[in-house]
Amino acid sequence: MTIKANVSLLALNTLALPGRAEFFCRVASDDELAAALAHARTKKLRVTVLGGGSNVVLAGDISGLVIQMATRGIEQRQQGGASNTVHWTVAAGENWHQFVQHSLAEKSYGLENLSLIPGLVGAAPIQNIGAYGLEVSERFVSLRALEISTGKTLSFSNGDCQFGYRESIFKQGAAGQFVVTSVTMALSQQPNVDISYPALAAAFEHTAGRMPSPQQVGDAVCRIRQQKLPDPAVQPNAGSFFKNPVLEKDRWQQLQAQYPQLPGYPQADGSVKLPAAWLIDRAGWKGAQGQGCGVHREHALVLVNSAACSGRQLLQLAEDIIVDIKQRFGILLVMEPQVFGATK
Ligand SMILES: Cc1cc2nc3c(=O)[nH]c(=O)nc-3n(C[C@H](O)[C@H](O)[C@H](O)COP(=O)(O)OP(=O)(O)OC[C@H]3O[C@@H](n4cnc5c(N)ncnc54)[C@H](O)[C@@H]3O)c2cc1C
């Protein structure tokens, strides 16, 4: 492991934003990670963890040590008795989509709806990744992590992680305190696909009631995502830029009386989730251009770096959208990606 000074992070974030790490290293094993953290403690360097850079906004240079996870390793363990459950323990540096593909090839099912989400396995629990009706918390058993301030190894159960919609303890009370080293998930050898999400149901409506295989569901998810979402390699982006707001039922009913076409998805606790994309589209932001960046022409939730913008320019566009949506609908949009480098 080599620690380098003044390293460009432009190629390491899917928004292709400029920004430099004061110090940078890539760790290929948990021992290298422990050594990097010990170095940071000795030199009193602030630590920032980077996975695939698909959910971060670089607002500027990052002071301290940026550690990129490059650890590898996938293990499966059959659970006892007549159980069909297999526990998979996966190193934080493994690519998420490749792991999902691998699990399907090994006839372990349950992650097919989360196919093609960019990034690494270690980041999956950080914002409890979700798509097509499934969140990773529904398959998550536990994770192991190193505490940055002490180098101690800790284990977090599902309950410990305090998962919510695009949330976990690692974005709240424990933000910036741990590096996830591995994640354990429980998958099933028994196929039990869920195609209730509307886009998936539509993809299989001509199958005459025959249930698709998990691999077919995974393939359909990939096709839908490829048609719908811009490829960051072509149009740099970080996927959905804002979380979908969740409103109390009363507030939702008031709003729906004003905007009868406003879609809403009732949640188990009685609240209603509404698509941030609808609000942004309705406010006329779809396709809008800021300074070197804009809102995707077909996807109101995706901000794109269209002409080598800076993180500050992108955040200004996000702020303009947030202020406008608040004024028009009284709803405060919350950004999904984490902002790095703002405080130097
Ligand atoms: C085109 C596109 C589509 C997307 N679609 C979805 C989607 O459908 N659903 C969804 O939920 N997300 C989606 N995302 C967002 C993103 O892919 C996920 O949030 C992903 O989990 C981020 O992984 P990463 O490795 O790139 O993390 P990074 O962007 O590198 O990091 C994200 C955060 O996690 C922290 N982190 C990363 N690794 C670790 C670790 N090992 N230990 C501790 N902290 C860590 C970072 O410090 C940072 O705070 C999409 C992004 C893009 C670009």
| Unreliable residue stretches | none
Using only CA atoms, what is the Rg? 21 Å
How many strand segments? 19
Note the overall shape: globular
Distance between the termini: 26 Å
CATH architecture of the largest domain: 2-Layer Sandwich
Helicity, as a percent range: 10-25%
Broad CATH class of the largest domain: Alpha Beta
Largest sheet: 5 strands, antiparallel
CATH topology of the largest domain: Uridine Diphospho-n-acetylenolpyruvylglucosamine Reductase, domain 3
What hetero molecules are in the model? flavin-adenine dinucleotide
Q: Strand percentage, roughly? A: 25-35%
How many helices? The count is 7
| Sheet with most strands: strand arrangement | 6-7-12-10-11
Key features of this structure:
344 residues; alpha+beta; Uridine Diphospho-n-acetylenolpyruvylglucosamine Reductase, domain 2; Uridine Diphospho-n-acetylenolpyruvylglucosamine Reductase, domain 3; Uridine Diphospho-n-acetylenolpyruvylglucosamine Reductase, domain 1; 3 domains; 5-stranded antiparallel β-sheet; 4-stranded mixed β-sheet; 7 helices; binds flavin-adenine dinucleotide
